[in-house]
Write a structure and sequence with these properties.
YbaB-like_sf, mainly alpha, Ybab, Chain: A, 5 helices, YbaB/EbfC, three-stranded antiparallel β-sheet, YbaB/EbfC DNA-binding family protein
Length: 176
């Protein structure tokens, strides 16, 4: 039987046409419910990472947004630049697991349905939140920066600046 004949038969049997439409609508409703459940579970996802020394713990949601930052006692001993670096590194570590967690939720909720859409979405998440490659073994200290080259002479004297046309330096500390 060809598709044209099926349509013709449905038009001859309005009750069969109604049953087919009801089945189609029920299928769409079930699909919408599965997607709504997957969305709800995804919105509830929380991923947490802790720095190797326990100084920083960062929790993120499935959208990558930070939902919590906690500091261990060791964080107090860090210079601000190092603490900032630790926060960002730990945040990226937590975000790196987002794509896998969302993929798991999608697989559990939707099975093999809409593979193309899922692959596109998970690919986008992987590009936004790439997996972290381990740079150094945990607990190792980064190498200190090289010392500055020795200087044999004193720097040349600078001419005084003409400050008549400059804005006061203490106005809001704006970079603009």
């Amino acid at each position: 039987m060809t598709r044209g004949n099926e349509l013709g038969e449905l038009m001859l049997d309005p009750d069969e046409a109604q049953r087919k439409m009801d089945q189609w609508a029920a299928g769409l409703e079930e699909k919408a419910q599965r997607y709504a459940a997957a969305q709800e579970r995804t919105e509830q996802l929380r991923l947490t990472a802790t720095s190797s020394d326990g100084a920083v713990k960062v929790t993120v949601g499935a959208d990558g947004g930070v939902t919590a930052i906690d500091f261990g006692n060791k964080a107090r001993t860090y210079p601000m630049e190092e603490l900032s670096r630790q926060i960002l590194a730990t945040m990226h570590q937590a975000q790196a697991g987002i794509a896998n967690q969302v993929a798991e939720v999608m697989q559990e909720s939707l099975g093999d349905e809409d593979q193309e859409t899922r692959e596109l979405m998970i690919g986008t998440l992987r590009s936004r939140f790439p997996e972290i490659e381990e740079e150094e073994p945990p607990g190792s200290e980064p190498a200190p920066p090289p010392p500055p080259p020795p200087s044999d002479s004193t720097p040349p004297a600078q001419a005084p600046r003409d400050r008549r046309h400059e804005a006061p330096e203490d106005e809001g500390n704006s970079p603009w």
